[in-house]
Amino acid sequence: MDIGLILGAFGIKGEVRILSFTDEPERFLELKEVILVDPDNESELKYEIEKVRVHKRNALVKFREVKDRTQAEKFEGTYVRLVGSIMTVVEEVRIINDKLIGMEIFTKSGERLGVLEEVIQTGANEVYEVRDGERSILLPAICEVILEIDLEHGRMVVDPLPGLL
Predict the structure, then answer these.
(1) For labeling, which of 1, 32, 103, 162 is most exposed (least CB within 10 Å)?
(2) Chain center to CA of 66
(3) Rounded to whole angstroms, how far apart are CA atoms 67 and 78?
(4) How many domains does the chain have?
């Protein structure tokens, strides 16, 4: 799973600046190694993490194999992937949300509401944006509304709160 994108070199000692896809740059503090994947998916190489620090919502990472800025500059645009499958809760939720997008949404009475287009993060709970042509419905992702999620068949059954439709 890709967890970040290298934005470029940082400083002169071979560090790279990584944009975390989960808005958790601290995530990189826990890692010992990652896989770097070039933008064309033609090569994947494992790199050992020597040092990590967080700076302005980015992770600044020094790989043991990268000795200077010139080497680090070559990684701009490279994706950072986890080694193995150790994910944070936020990363697991992101994968699940990616699978939800495109699902057909039905009421418990069988009425088709549209397709889930976006998962919106709010302070309290997520909100699902469902579109059917020009019509857009916002459904809170709470157990009182979301009755069933069938990933295999790409459908969700909901019971919208009064006034949502």
Answers:
(1) 162
(2) 26
(3) 17
(4) 2
Those residues whose C-beta lies under 8 Å from the C-beta of residue 49, and which sit 6 or more positions away, are: 28, 31, 32, 33, 34, 61, 62, 63, 64
Which residues span the domain enclosing 11?
A: 2-86
pLDDT, one tens digit per residue, over 20-68 is 887 788 889 989 999 999 877 678 899 999 999 999 889 999 999 999 9
92-99 LR contacts (CB < 8 Å, sep 24+): 94/21, 94/22, 95/1, 97/126, 99/151
The answer to whether the beta carbons of residues 49 and 59 sit under 8 Å apart is no
CATH label of the domain that carries residue 110: 2.30.30.240
Confidence grade of residue 103 (pLDDT, cut at 50, 70, 90): very high
pLDDT at 127 over 80: yes
Q: Locate 33 and state its tokens.
A: 């190694």
Kindly tell me if the per-residue pLDDT of 96 is higher than 90.
no
Residue type present at position 35: I
Domain for residue 126, yes or no?
A: yes
pLDDT, tens digit, for every residue of 2-14?
888 999 999 999 9
Strand residues in the chain grouped as ranges (E): 2-10, 15-20, 33-37, 44-55, 58-63, 79-82, 104-107, 112-120, 127-132, 135-140, 146-150, 155-158
